[in-house]
Amino acid sequence: MRTAGLPPTWQRDSNAAVIEPDVSPPLALLPAARTLPRQEQGHAVQWEPHSHPVSQLLSVQRGIMKLVVERSVWVVPPHFAVWVPAGIVHTSRVSADCEFQATFFSERESFLRPRDAYGVTVTPLLQELLARLQAADLTQVQRRNIERVLFDNLAPTSHDLRVRMPRDQRILPIADVLNADPGDRRSLDEWAASLEVSSKTLARIFQNETGVSFHGWRQLVRVQSALEQLSHGQSVALVARSLGYAQTSTFIDAFRRVLAMTPGQYRAHALIA
């Protein structure tokens, strides 16, 4: 079933418990930032679409979070986070083993931040700052000082894990299939023939709608799927086969181009996080 207000390719997970989020203003967290204690649900959970009156940083320490912000989809692995501005509709679901944190920021302190969501690499320094904001005995002045240092280190990641979802009806069938089966190996010419649209037209629509080529978009979808599978302990070779790669080395090269690390390095990193 497609969910109103989200990209057409977003599907509910029938195995995840659905939660109505609390979207009331977290006044107790204001006027300075505060990181809530780490959450671990113990089972897969999906939150209904919602927005908050304040901005937040969603960070993952273990497991996987899938986050949808407007037309963009992130798979958020350990040591990554996504900045979600105030008032932006989003939803998420987490794996059963996911451990994550939410840090809220007052609009007064965060108004200079970009008004679009973006991915963040959680460095050791940033993790320490987020942990420090959990302390109950901090004064408002201390919180603001930590918040300013945190913002100085809240740079967008160089490894963009975002997949922008299309809206054009001419390529939605392709997006639907690839999201359900990232290993589908049909070329753009083959898709053009089955959809009775020229391959040049499809290529142009993909570039205009998603910001990348068809091949680049499919690669990002595959890397997102790989992140989920690797975080659950699947072998690199098995993941490569499931994603349609004839050679494991080809998958490793594609993964490295997106994340600047091999799947094996990521898998070891994620499983010990």
In brief:
It is built from ten helices and eleven strands. By secondary structure, the protein is α+β, with helices and mostly antiparallel strands.
Strand content: 15-25%
What is the string of helix and strand elements?
EEEEEEEEEHEHHEHHHHHHH
Helical segment count: 10
Cα Rg: 19 Å
| Average pLDDT number | 84
Placed side by side, the strands forming the largest sheet appear as: 1-3-8-5-6-11
Helix-strand makeup class: alpha+beta
Q: In total, how many beta strands? A: 11
Query: What is the straight-line distance between the termini?
Result: 34 Å
What percent of the residues sit in helical stretches (DSSP H or I)?
Answer: 25-40%
Identify low-pLDDT runs: 1-5
Instruction: Specify the overall morphology.
Output: globular
In this structure, how is the largest beta sheet organized?
6 strands, mixed
